[in-house]
Amino acid sequence: MLGPHSTPDVDSSSSAGYAKSTNGSRGESDITATSALGHSGHGQQSLDRTAAQFSHVDIADPGALEAELQYERTHHSNYAVSARLSEGAARVISSGIDNLDRPNVLRDEASKYSLHDSGQVDDYVPPPDLLPIPGSFSAVVRTNLRVTPPDHWQDVRQITLHIHTKRDPQTQERIEPFYKPGDVLTIFPKNFPEDVQALIDLMGWGEVADLPFEHHSRQGGGIPGIPNSPRPRNCFPLPDSTLRQLLLHNYDITAIPKRVFFDQIAWHTNDPMHMERLREFADPKYTDEFYDYTSRPRRSILEILQDFPSVKIPYQEIPSIFPVIRGREYSIASGGDLLKEKGTDDLRAELLVALVKYKTVLRKTRQGLCSRYIASLKPDTTINVMIGDNQGPPNESRHIRAPLLAIGPGTGVAPIRSLIHDRLSYPVCGENILIFGGRNRKADFYFSNEWKDLGVTVHTAFSRDQKEKIYVQDVIRQQASLICYLVQKGAIMCLCGSSGKMPEAVRQALYDALVIGGLAPNAEAAKHIFNNRVECWEEVW
């Protein structure tokens, strides 16, 4: 609850929704980008237009599929236009409105989804205030560079941070930040002033927006009127925060809400139709409607409140209704000789971050909260970060001397780079072999300029550079003799990248390689050999 130096008593009870990142979850957990379109110029198409048009789905014959989609768009029985304009029309489609769009495939013309503003950043960025987050360090952004071409469908950033030492507030002892391969760095995003102002205007909070507040949540057992009662869990506001500052720094107004959110806000409308609709979304009987309205189009809390303008939430209820902004974890991409910045005591950390920005079937640009925040960070900006001690690869001397087989599609190469730099900092280390997967050699071959200088043997799989799709699994089978050699040499293996089907597909390819290479008579024997001879480290998210 909120109040100017006091906490009024209110009726409804709920808890601030806080979702803690699970182990293995990295970076922007708002959503994986399901669709982002490049656009063709005058005579020059983008590097990855077909891949962007059909998102992450591999299409055997994109031209034939597009012809099919065009037929569906123009056929007299197509409900696309009417369903988007009317819920009644949507109901005649058995699977709901989003049946108009196959999973991860856009059914409208590609040009309608073009992200013309991919390279732009917001003019009004979040304030630079550093929150008192326990265990965090202050870090200065030194570089924030886009490493994919401007016309590539995905904006990937290489970010360099200098992390400062600090003093323990109790003992005044010097605390030096440190990380090892496999560790993660947490960035704490903020809301943007324009969104916060839009919410303040919509709710009618203008008169109290810039007054200092004490805020408490029933989730934490807060007692109205008692200043020291607990705040919402993992909420660390600035001293004497105003409502505006809390909305900028602490409460997530762009999250995709859970079902309980609709039940909570239904109490704060006098419009019978709005109340009925909100309670339907909160009712488990209407799961499909809830999913179609929230998860499919990725509607944020702010957008939902704009859809239901009759809802007026009392400002005292903010801690009980809005979730707390949580930090996003990113695998650290540096190590070894890159740990320290010469001439300073700062710890150096590099990140490779794929920004989440895409367009939905509603043709509305979506951007992850942390992605938008990261895109806005300019050099010399100071931010809060936290270093997470993650379960990294084995690093005993025998492991350093052993060969390394690293498999890293896309930005999954980040923790692999950290490991390789760390291994090379030892007097003697085994050979380093990388199997890298991407879409285009010219667009997303990350760190390509440094692998040769580091003495890394790289085998690549670029799925979109030729007619036939090639993936890391195919390269593993092609390099069956090499895989068998590495297993016999006692190599360690690390696999990093997206979770889902990829890790299992890679493991199956490794088993197949042992059979193809003659080290095992069948898949079962290959699995036994691999699991008993090879030490594996997986970092998937």
Automatic annotation (TrEMBL):
Swiss-Prot/TrEMBL cofactor(s): FAD
Stretches with biased composition (Polar residues): 9-48
Pfam families: FAD_binding_1, NAD_binding_1
A Gene Ontology term for the protein's cellular component: cytosol
InterPro entries in UniProt: CysJ-like_FAD-binding, FAD-bd_FR_type, Flavoprot_Pyr_Nucl_cyt_Rdtase, FNR_nucleotide-bd, NADPH_Cyt_P450_Rdtase_alpha, OxRdtase_FAD/NAD-bd, Riboflavin_synthase-like_b-brl
Keywords: FAD, Flavoprotein, Oxidoreductase
Gene3D superfamilies, A to Z: NADPH-cytochrome p450 Reductase, Chain A, domain 3, Nucleotide-binding domain of ferredoxin-NADP reductase (FNR) module, Translation factors
Domain FAD-binding FR-type as annotated: residue spans: 134-400
KW Cell membrane (keyword) present: no
An example molecular function term from Gene Ontology annotations: FMN binding
Matching PANTHER family: NADPH-DEPENDENT DIFLAVIN OXIDOREDUCTASE 1, NITRIC OXIDE SYNTHASE-RELATED
Name of protein: FAD-binding FR-type domain-containing protein
